[in-house]
Amino acid sequence: MKLKKYKSISGITSYSMSLIVALCTVISIFSALIFISLDKDAEIINLSGSLRMQSYRLAYDITTNNSENKLKYIEKYDSVLYSDALKSVTDWHSTNEIKTHYFQVARHWESIKEKLLTQREQEVLLIIPSFVDIIDELVYNIQLHSENKFHYLIWISSIGLLLVGLIVIYFVHYINHKVVGPIVQLSNASQNIRLGNFGIELDYHLNNEIGLLSSTFHRMAEKMGHIYSGLELSLSQNNQALELAVEENVLLSKLSIILLNSEPHQNKLESAISLIQDLDAVSYIALEWKSADKEESIAVSQGTKNSELLYTFPLMYKNVIVGTLSCQSEYKLSLLETVAPIFAKYLHSFNK
How far apart are CA 196 and CA 228, in angstroms? Predict the structure, then answer.
């Protein structure tokens, strides 16, 4: 028979608590990383938006023939477009659409910068609308990526909290059925034992510490029940023996008064036999002896003889058999052995 694997309550508790702490830690770390990333995305979106505004400003200055500060525009545009924040959109965590649009913006800007430096501002005006559209696409994809991150955060947090809830429900169910329930059974069992009821029912097949305790408690209750039953049986037997002894002493006293303190007569024997038959444990008793000339057998009896075993005991006085005493009794031979000497002595006197 394959033994069940032992599962410690402390082990289950530690494992459940460790899982809950691990899940909460993972959710917290992931949430922190997502929020940091969202904050960085907000900065990137602001910088991308500033590129769009600077593009509009550059177009306005060109149309108003105010392009004297074009080197300043170029320097400012380069500082924004090639900043660490915007260049981070080309890292591994960005989507391919964001990377593609960023490189398109960079290529278009290099083309615009080359035209500005070669005094071809009118060509720049023709490129700026499509350039702004590419910037808008970049901003849109960054915003979409940020929204997806937020959705991922919600989904992962929900799944994590669901897993934590399932672990908590399992742990509460385990504690109720494997710990609290058996402890209540042990408490009820102890009350039953206190009341003298040792036939307790315990679920001692649990493969944990409570199961071991229940099994030990059950074996202890069985042993106590056997001891208690033995004591009750012994006490009952002692009480029966005491009652028998008292009854025998009373009977001997009465027989002595009837038989030993009066002249011998057959009526006395009949009275003595009747006295014995009045006992609850005696259903039939008979006394038989020989007459003085030993030619005739005389018998007196009381009760109804049935199919039970009949016990016969010889009555001897000074090593001479003077008669027999037969009895059907729950006392078996003990009663005959008790009263036989009195009857033997009386019959000896009677025959004389």
Answer: 9
Q: Which residues contact residue 345 at a Cβ distance below 8 angstroms, ignoring those fewer than 6 apart?
A: 259, 260, 317
In angstroms, the first-to-last Cα distance of the chain is 82
DSSP state of 279: S
CB 321 within 8 A of CB 315: yes
Average pLDDT of 191-209?
73
Tokens of 343: 């009857």
Element (H, E) at 290: strand 282-290
d(CA 63, CA 66) in angstroms, rounded, equals: 8
* 159-173: pLDDT as tens digits: 988 998 898 898 888
Q: What type of residue sits at position 213?
A: L
Q: What's the gap between Cα 267 and its chain centre?
A: 78
8 Å CB contact between 318 and 295: no
In angstroms, the CA 280 to CA 162 distance is 78
The structure tokens 């990377």 sit at 99
Is residue 2 very low, low, confident or very high in pLDDT (cuts 50, 70, 90)? very low
Q: Where do runs of H (alpha helix) occur along 64-120? A: 70-81, 84-87, 96-117
pLDDT in the model for residue 3: 43
> What are the phi and psi torsion angles at 283 (to 5°)?
-100, -25
Which residue has tokens 């303190």? 261
Q: Is the pTM of this model over 0.70?
A: no
Task: Say which range, 106-115, 118-127, 211-220, has the weakest mean pLDDT.
Answer: 211-220
Structure tokens at 311: 């016990």
Most confidently predicted of 126-130, 260-264, 305-309: 126-130
Q: Quick one: CA dihedral 214, 216, 219, 221, positive or negative?
A: negative
Q: What domains can you pick out in the chain, each with its CATH number?
A: 9-176 (1.20.120.960), 262-351 (3.30.450.40)
**Tens of pLDDT along 31-55?**
888 888 888 888 888 988 888 888 8
> Which residues sit opposite 327 in a β-bridge?
285, 311
In this structure, what token pair is assigned to residue 242? 């005491």
Over pLDDT 70: what percentage of the chain?
88
